[in-house]
Amino acid sequence: MAQCGACTVQLNGVATRACQTPVSSVGNAAITTIEGLSPDGSHPVQRAWMELDVPQCGYCQAGQIMAASALLAKKPRPSEADIDEAMNGNLCRCATYLRIREGIHRAVQLAATGGAR
Predict the structure, then answer these.
(1) 109 Cβ neighbours under 8 A, 6+ residues apart
(2) Which of 51, 58, 92, 103 has the highest local Cβ count within 10 Å?
């Protein structure tokens, strides 16, 4: 139903809801899941999330990270409006939205200073 965003993956770098994407429509698209974002958790978004202790329960965080990393790949220095647009629809029952936003800003900083370890 694509109501929460927890299942977000990237198809050819675009944040996509897996729950409403038929496998038959994927074809030869490059699929990136949270496990494939980096082999060791060194992606700037993953590092920012750990550094700032963004998640509370964690249920939605894979989708949050995948949406945020797709945003930063497209716009390395996003505006607040860019963040709002990209993250809209990724729900967090624990309401960690401020920490998610802070995490995105921290990931921008990490990427600018050689974000991957």
Answers:
(1) none
(2) 103
